[in-house]
Specification:
By secondary structure, the protein is mostly helical. The protein has helices at about 1-25, 30-35, 45-60, 60-65. The chain has one domain (about 1-25, about 40-65). It is elongated.
Length: about 60
């Protein structure tokens, strides 16, 4: 019974992640946002430093380094 419960739980978690990944694909991005241009210059050191500090503060714990 324990093995069935573990198998069922694993299947539910896998299905949940699979369904979430389908929602996050780039094809779901509205056209007006796909065509938007980044207003910052990617070679601007100050912008890169700000972006890195924001990533470190808000994103790194989830996405890793």
């Amino acid at each position: 019974m324990k093995k069935i419960l573990i198998l069922f739980s694993t299947a539910v978690v896998f299905f949940d992640f699979y369904s979430l990944s389908k929602r996050w694909r780039s094809s779901d991005i509205p056209a007006k946002y796909k065509s938007m241009k980044n207003p910052t210059d990617s070679s601007d050191k100050e912008c890169l430093d700000v972006g890195k500090s924001l990533f470190d503060k808000h994103c790194k714990s989830w996405h890793g380094s």
